[in-house]
Design goal:
This protein is of the alpha/beta class and 236 residues long. The chain is built from 9 helices and 6 strands, in the order βαααααβαβαβαββα. The chain has a 6-stranded parallel beta sheet, sandwiched between helices. β2, α6 and β3 form a beta-alpha-beta unit.
Length: 236
């Protein structure tokens, strides 16, 4: 059996991989930033919001939570309580139709083909798990969450640390050598490879991604399918 045909799990990043960087940077982030204070005023007594604010106070002692959150937004910091709060704000936007999850046109068909062929699919993003579920549940291609076997965020570990990928493999009860990780970020792929995963860098021209030369490359999901022998691989 070839290495490609041994793939049992495809683990995917979101921004720059399944979804355009512009959607995240220019649509999702400004949406959450604009609604931040109004959301906290309206929902600050909800247990999940209180827990997030407590975590903010712990990570940024001596600062007002809103001040700390806005500073993290300006820095594009991958801070777990910020990501959790953004996810709650986006949830409202997805629920009332103001937001719809962007996917590159090639993604949904490949996910359906891979899942139908017995490959398990999972997401690993710095965005919170609820935010991930909302994006794929309210995507432009419909509700794709039934295709996804797992969602992971930074609560399992940082994306540039090999231990995070080992933990995900353990959670999915999968052998690292039978997992393929897709991302546009070379440093994340380095960490996944160090944990024993197969890797592929998505180099999407529309996102301006620069190939690292350190990993196999693909311009889209059909190219991934062809390169790794995944089910439903279309002809070139």
């Amino acid at each position: 059996m070839s290495e490609a045909r041994a793939i049992q799990v495809v683990l995917m990043d979101i921004e720059g991989t399944t979804t355009s960087i512009a959607f995240v940077k220019d649509r999702l982030f400004p949406f959450a930033e604009a609604a931040l204070e109004e959301f906290l005023a309206a929902h600050g007594d909800r247990p999940e919001v209180l827990a997030i604010i407590a975590e903010v106070r712990e990570l940024a002692p001596g600062r007002q939570p809103v001040e700390a959150l806005r500073a993290w937004i300006a820095e594009d910091a991958k801070v777990t309580p910020l990501k959790a709060l953004q996810g709650l704000i986006w949830h409202q936007g997805y629920a009332d139709g103001r937001l719809q999850g962007h996917l590159w046109p090639d993604v949904a068909a490949c996910l359906r083909a891979w899942a139908a062929g017995g490959v398990r699919l999972a997401i690993y993003s710095s965005g919170s798990v609820p935010a991930q579920r909302d994006l794929f549940g309210h995507s432009e291609a419909g509700d794709l969450t039934p295709l996804l076997a797992g969602f992971f965020d930074t609560r399992i570990g940082a994306k540039r640390e090999a231990e995070s990928y080992a933990a995900i493999a353990a959670e999915l009860r999968a052998a690292p050598g039978q997992m393929l990780f897709l991302s546009d970020v070379a440093e994340e792929l380095d960490a996944a490879r160090a944990a024993g995963l197969l890797t592929c860098q998505l180099v999407r021209a529309a996102d301006g991604t620069q190939a690292s030369g350190r990993h196999p490359e693909a311009e889209d999901f059909p190219a991934v399918a062809r390169r790794f022998g995944l089910p439903g691989a279309p002809p070139p």
